Amino acid sequence: MRLDKYLCDGLGVTRKQATKVIRSGEVTVDSEVQKSGAFKVPENSVVEWDGRKVGVPGPRYIMLYKPADFVCSHEDGFNQTAFVLLDEPKVENLHFAGRLDVDTTGLVLITDDGQWSHRITSPKHKCEKTYRVWLADAIEPDYVEKFAQGIELRNERDATLPAQLEIVNEAENEVLLTIVEGKYHQVKRMFAALGNKVDYLHRERIGSIVLDEALEPGDYRYLTEEEVETIWK
Ligand code: URA
């Protein structure tokens, strides 16, 4: 990484400010003064500014319990973005590893590691996502089979990939649905294709990562190393 970028990330300063401190001779790399922002910082080097060590934060992996009425994007003209729930530096470097609709609650993963999030969102990797769904109308006896076979959605060429439906509470029209894709409004459209309607949608699981029961809506925590690793398996 270039020295000026290293300082921007590590100190949370602008490129102009980083260039200024570098030129002033206050920055050392492995104890040697470096006056060029373009200097390539070798891996595992110790970068110091005015005698204090500058650390570039490693990749970040966060689980957020998204409440309703927040959107999974950096900007929205109407609703608040879920990023306002994070008390983190450099939020602009983070992105959602798969979005939820504004009215959907539950697990969202947030990271600055594009390769990691690609493993979650790319249909090629078939990463499972489990949703708890409450339906407006009764669960028909053939639903489990229909989801397993694949459902034809409006404006889509291919049927959905086989999905697993588990009936949790028939009287309350409550099911658990596991899908391996992430088409636009997929869960709502799957039930709409069967003539039903989703009243309430909540994501509980992505791959092996389960929404932490200790989190309240709006809370977040960093993933453990083990949780991060499961996505590569
Ligand atoms: N499917 C939907 O329809 N909405 C979501 O928020 C997630 C999956």
UniProtKB/TrEMBL annotation:
<dbReference type="Pfam" id="PF00849">
    <property type="entry name" value="PseudoU_synth_2"/>
</dbReference>
<dbReference type="Pfam" id="PF01479">
    <property type="entry name" value="S4"/>
</dbReference>
<dbReference type="InterPro" id="IPR036986">
    <property type="entry name" value="S4_RNA-bd_sf"/>
</dbReference>
<keyword id="KW-0698">rRNA processing</keyword>
<dbReference type="InterPro" id="IPR006145">
    <property type="entry name" value="PsdUridine_synth_RsuA/RluA"/>
</dbReference>
<feature type="domain" description="RNA-binding S4">
    <location>
        <begin position="1"/>
        <end position="63"/>
    </location>
</feature>
<dbReference type="InterPro" id="IPR002942">
    <property type="entry name" value="S4_RNA-bd"/>
</dbReference>
<protein>
    <recommendedName>
        <fullName>Pseudouridine synthase</fullName>
        <ecNumber>5.4.99.-</ecNumber>
    </recommendedName>
</protein>
<comment type="similarity">
    <text>Belongs to the pseudouridine synthase RsuA family.</text>
</comment>
<keyword id="KW-0413">Isomerase</keyword>
<dbReference type="InterPro" id="IPR000748">
    <property type="entry name" value="PsdUridine_synth_RsuA/RluB/E/F"/>
</dbReference>
<dbReference type="InterPro" id="IPR020103">
    <property type="entry name" value="PsdUridine_synth_cat_dom_sf"/>
</dbReference>
<comment type="function">
    <text>Responsible for synthesis of pseudouridine from uracil-516 in 16S ribosomal RNA.</text>
</comment>
<dbReference type="InterPro" id="IPR042092">
    <property type="entry name" value="PsdUridine_s_RsuA/RluB/E/F_cat"/>
</dbReference>
<dbReference type="InterPro" id="IPR020094">
    <property type="entry name" value="TruA/RsuA/RluB/E/F_N"/>
</dbReference>
<dbReference type="InterPro" id="IPR050343">
    <property type="entry name" value="RsuA_PseudoU_synthase"/>
</dbReference>
<dbReference type="InterPro" id="IPR018496">
    <property type="entry name" value="PsdUridine_synth_RsuA/RluB_CS"/>
</dbReference>
<keyword id="KW-0694">RNA-binding</keyword>
